[in-house]
Automatic annotation (TrEMBL):
This is Membrane protein. The keyword Oxidoreductase does not apply. Keywords: Cell membrane, Membrane, Transferase, Transmembrane, Transmembrane helix. One of its GO terms (molecular function) is hexosyltransferase activity. GO terms for cellular component: plasma membrane. Pfam families: GT87. The chain crosses the membrane at residues 37-70, 77-96, 102-126, 138-159, 203-220, 267-287, 299-322. Belongs to the glycosyltransferase 87 family. It is found in: Cell membrane.
Length: 337
């Protein structure tokens, strides 16, 4: 049975029964880590058996994946779907019954209200509000931010005690509720990488995360929307205190960009391809098995695979940075003639 789906359903059952959502585990020793609004969103799961819910979620995730692929690359969407299913991010999202593909679809389909709802279900899409502010799209940022605040208000209205625990008592900032060992290779974030390097200083995490966001935002402002969503979404996963591999479903719009660009014989887009291929579940299982002992626990290859999604983000920035450098040189040459 999909582990995360079972947790979503159990959390919704806790919410419906008026049981404290964050006091302890809700299913099989696992805690509910999402905002109270998400438990309200998951309430329909409580009227289904786990078996029916599993079937519904698999079908919905399949439809969402096809929609995202079509939205990002209408001509090449079947190719995008096939490649995406081979990545650990998408494979695990579907296998666990995760909500991640719905968040990507919301951001793509409705960059204002959709961003706010996605942030209400899971906090990381707030990075898109920040990007809208940086782009000086203040009206869009206001709508997205107000929608996100509205989801918080709905949570306080319907689940006041849980909302106090989550928002006012700091539950939202406690990443140990996700996984006790922040330096585990399962944590595919800047913080996880630093802890694996033995750097525990939070200032280093903040500084590097800020640099990642600045770079991603600057490059995202130079590309079309699908590409921008991929860059900003992956940057959000990178700077989060904790990011499972399946949090990196923003690779789906990236795959669409890579397929489109390679179809046009823009070979610089081969740069992120090896990293995309390495996100296949059997490859990452070498260092990140869900169960059992990893085949690798140290060494250069271990470090690469332990930080593969971060390296994929950097690799996906390279073509854009090179294009920006070329444009700058052309512009400079034009002004001197």
């Amino acid at each position: 049975m999909p582990v995360d789906l079972a947790v979503y359903r159990a959390g919704a059952e806790f919410a419906r029964a008026g049981t404290d959502l964050y006091a302890g585990p809700v299913n099989n020793g696992l805690q509910f880590t999402y905002p109270p609004f998400s438990a309200i969103v998951f309430l329909p799961l409580t009227v289904m058996s786990l078996g029916v819910a599993q079937t519904v979620v698999v079908v919905v995730n399949g439809v969402l994946l096809c929609f995202i692929a079509w939205r990002c690359a209408p001509r090449w969407w079947p190719v995008v779907v096939v490649v995406a299913l081979c990545t650990e991010a998408v494979h695990t999202s579907v296998n666990l019954g995760q909500v991640n593909l719905a968040l990507v679809a919301l951001v793509l389909a409705a960059p204002r209200v959709g961003v706010g709802i996605a942030a209400g279900v899971k906090l990381t899409p707030l990075v898109f509000v920040a990007h809208l502010v940086v782009r000086r799209e203040f009206a869009a940022a206001s709508v997205a931010g107000a929608t996100a605040l509205g989801t918080v208000g709905v949570g306080f209205l319907l689940l006041p005690g849980d909302s106090v625990d989550y928002w006012l008592n700091g539950m939202f900032a406690d990443s140990t509720r996700v996984f006790a060992e922040a330096g585990s290779p399962h944590n595919q974030s800047v913080r996880g990488m630093l802890l694996r390097l033995g750097v525990a200083d939070p200032l280093a995490w903040v500084a590097i995360s800020a640099a990642v966001l600045v770079g991603a935002f600057w490059l995202a402002n130079r590309v079309e929307r699908t590409h921008a969503v991929a860059l900003v979404g992956m940057a959000g996963a990178a700077v989060s205190p904790w990011s499972w591999g399946h949090h990196w479903v923003w690779v789906v719009p990236l795959i669409a960009v890579v397929v489109r660009e390679l179809a046009l014989r823009r070979w610089v887009w081969l740069v992120p391809v090896p990293f995309l291929l390495a996100t296949a579940p059997p490859v990452l299982a070498v260092v990140n098995p869900l169960e059992g002992t990893p085949a690798l626990s140290s060494g250069p290859l271990w470090f690469v695979l332990s930080n593969l999604y971060l390296l994929l983000l950097l690799a996906s920035m390279v073509p854009v940075a090179l294009n920006a450098l070329r444009d700058h040189r052309v512009s400079k040459l034009g002004t001197t003639q």
